[in-house]
Amino acid sequence: MKYMLIMRATDEALASFENVDFTEMLDVMGRFNDEMISAGVLVAAEGLEDAAESVVVDYSSTPPLVTDGPYGEVKELFNGFWILDVASKEEAVEWASRAPGGGPGVKTEIRRVASIDEFPQDNVWIQKERAWREATGQL
């Protein structure tokens, strides 16, 4: 089963990282990622750039409204994620509990990633996606 570990932090927590040596942070994160690679559970991992550079597409109108910046009133921002292929939610929680960079105002949300096998296999779009995944080595 795949799980997405979504790193979330408050503005205050993000500000506390401004004084952390970037090379040291990369070393700590790199060692953690290497542990997950060695364990065979890491599928993907990415950090996200500053939320102030983001764009929001709001679908509550036609055409959708596009605005700059993060959500209007947000108390926590996503700043990166890992996708793990593990045996259970408990194992995903175990890996998340070991992640570096924690502290006050930092949280990790764990969400199961739906498998293509869970969708109707007779749907033409699912069949096309399955073919694409097979052709690109994702299945």
UniProtKB/TrEMBL annotation:
Fetch the InterPro entries from UniProt.
Dimeric_a/b-barrel, YCII
Q: Name one Pfam family in it.
A: YCII
Q: Specify the YCII-related domain's residue ranges.
A: 1-107
Top-level lineage group = Bacteria
UniProt-listed PANTHER family = BLL7163 PROTEIN, BLL7171 PROTEIN-RELATED
Q: Which family does it belong to?
A: Belongs to the YciI family.
Name the UniProt record assigns to this protein: YciI family protein
User: What species was this sequence derived from?
Assistant: Cellulomonas chengniuliangii
